[in-house]
Amino acid sequence: MRLSLELAGLAALALAACLGAGAARAEQCAGIGGQVQPRSHIPMFIYAGTADNDAKSHFERFRSLIGGKLSMLAEETRLDFLPDFGLYLPGGQPLPDTVQRQADRDRYWDKTNALQLLRGTVWPGQPYSVESAIYIGGLRGSLPHTEVRVRLPIQPEEVPTTNDSHSAVTFFALAMEARRLKCDPAVSIHLLGKARSVIKDIRRRSGSLVGHLAELEAAVEAELKK
Questions:
Q1: Does 186 score more than 70 pLDDT?
Q2: Would the pTM of this model clear 0.70, i.e. be above it?
């Protein structure tokens, strides 16, 4: 029942976004219209490992950072075709994780027209870190998985930037969505270029790519050749 209510709420938002898209978006992206609804919302679910107060406070910090990163990302890039892009937090809070099974994630993503689903785990340490399993479903392009696992340390003094693994995945998903909506090819190329730049910066700072980032890098390069 809870999942059905969540699906209904997000589906309504997606439909409203589509109906209010406006002529400018329709002109830029030929695929928008009729039954084709843009994927713009990013539902965030409650991460595992947040039972105690310390972990919970770090998760809240992470949530704030992600919100800031997405706002900056929208300002930095050409997202005119997704005016309602951003985190989906009903009542300002993450959703209970009712999509732990692959089939549930597939259904939620299909029914709500979400761009991504944000789930994961908060790990204790100095500093705390977050491992996210970012589900992108049919927007995976050349990726071998529908879910991309990435990790991010939660530094108390950290300010939002888009030079991180979560942003790289989002740039990629946005590029694939631009293609799905038949936007001007320059839009997807620009977004893939942003993903490539972020991944290169991560490699430069870290010396290597961990998790699924190496596969994401290969997928970005493959999509740029199409």
A1: yes
A2: yes
